[in-house]
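yo

u said u wanted the structure for the complex thing, so here. seqs first:
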Amino acid sequence: MTPAVRRWVFLAGVAGLAAFYLWGLTGLPRFGSYPGPYGDVINRIAVAQTNATGVVSAINFEYRGFDTIGEEFILFAAAIGTATVLRHLRGERERAARDEAMDRTVPPASEAVRMVSLLLVGPTVLVGWYLASHAQTSPSGGFQGGVVLATGFILIYLAGEFLVFKRISPVDVTDAVGAVGAGGFAAVGVTAVAMGLPYLFNFLPLGSTPGAVSSSGTIALISFLVGIEVAAAFVLIVSELLEQTLLFRQESR
Amino acid sequence: MGIFPFVVAAWILAVGLYGIVTSRHLVHQIVCLIVVQSSTYVLLLGVGYRRGAAAPYFSDIPVHTPAVDPVVQALALTDVVVEAAVTALLLAFAIQAHKRFGTLDPQELVQFRG
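structre next:
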């Protein structure tokens, strides 16, 4: 199929999609007049049932917890898949970057970038930790906190400390931490079953004050486990992708 | 206003698909896939929006305040993170494709076999 034919086939398909979509929109409620019952029901009962004032987290880690386990394992599988696809193949060996201009040395990261990056590491880790541990009360949670935590590690790389980055995030450790996070989530569910309750049932004490750090039982625990899993997965992905810049590429055509 | 946000979602979807269909570079194609996926966020959050309602966080507002739908927000949230990880996996495939075939043009890549 030539590019021109491909484009015409696409345009015909999109025209059909647009026609049906606009037709469908005529029967849809107007934007801003939300008709669904589920959101209203959950908004009304979630705080009383779970003592979490952040209803989105309550849904993610309690009402829809079983779905979130699935999402979590998609993330886990994608990280492991990235590491597997980028493993060292036969005939590849590490060497310094092959530069076109051999007489020029690679400029090191500038002092300003180094200093700002290293200064930001502490606050970034703190914010990530805060987000991962306050799912029950604020618009945060393990997914967001984990990504911010991973950013702390990536800032170390940005500061030009690739070897430090590799040393504090070896694949064995990030793999193990990620597995603890993902497996811990599943283990929380199994623990509830062992106690004779439904899978992922919130079996921990809910605390007395809605929205307190100690409230909401397994919601806070699962959010924290998701946080370390997401952080580990992203550190693993980034270090695997960065390592590719050090690989010698054998021409194997 | 009416249906405008839903039209925007469809437009983002169509633009991303057009990029995928006509792309001449795998990395560009992956970015187009991210654009396609972004349309789902607009659609989800547009469906759950309610005029004049608060965010579904009851830390500092009374519990019975009308709030937007938290279910679609939870869906969008996990979607974002999973999308980032899947994008990394696709980029890894792109790296290996370039190592093996020496090109990142999808229209050249279809000529290669295994």
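Residues 70-101 of chain B form the longest helix (32 residues). Chain B touches chain A through 55 residues (CB under 8 Å).
cya
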